[in-house]
Amino acid sequence: MPTEQPNELSKMPEDSSDSKRSPHILLIEDDEEMLNMLSEALMQEGYRVTKRMKAFDWILYCIHNAGENMSFSPDDRFDAVVSDIRMPKMGGLEALRIINALNCAETCPPAIFITAFGDDETHRMAEKLGDVEVLDKPFDVNDLIKKVQKLISSQI
Q1: Which terminus of the chain has fewer CB atoms gathered within 10 Å of its CB, N or C?
Q2: What tens digit of pLDDT does each residue of 80-125 get?
Q3: pTM of the predicted protein model
Q4: Sites of the modification 4-aspartylphosphate (predicted)?
């Protein structure tokens, strides 16, 4: 049975690396094995990773970060989000739709979506929601790492 993470905003950012200066990734995936494998690969590249199994946590982060005087500290901010598209209850695309509808997109980090259902329609839906990347499963983890590196370096 998958272990759920607490939803409390004060507990959302969690270090998984010693370096406070390394980029921070919010990783959202409902498959615990995939979540752990991707997390390990990103941490080996020097990223800090916060793992979540629900896309709703991304929405909470963006809403919280959009509030005046309620921002996370610089060490707790996410530099990118990697999210599965299809998950129980709410997937990554639905989360991004809500974030956009709440006018919180500007306070949210850029996203890379991963999906086992990478048909043309899914790609079009993702592109309509913003400047996002979509990576179809199965994929080479090195391709994901390259996309994360490119995404983060484009923000500097």
Answers
A1: N
A2: 999 999 999 999 999 999 998 888 877 788 999 999 988 899 889 8
A3: 0.82
A4: 84
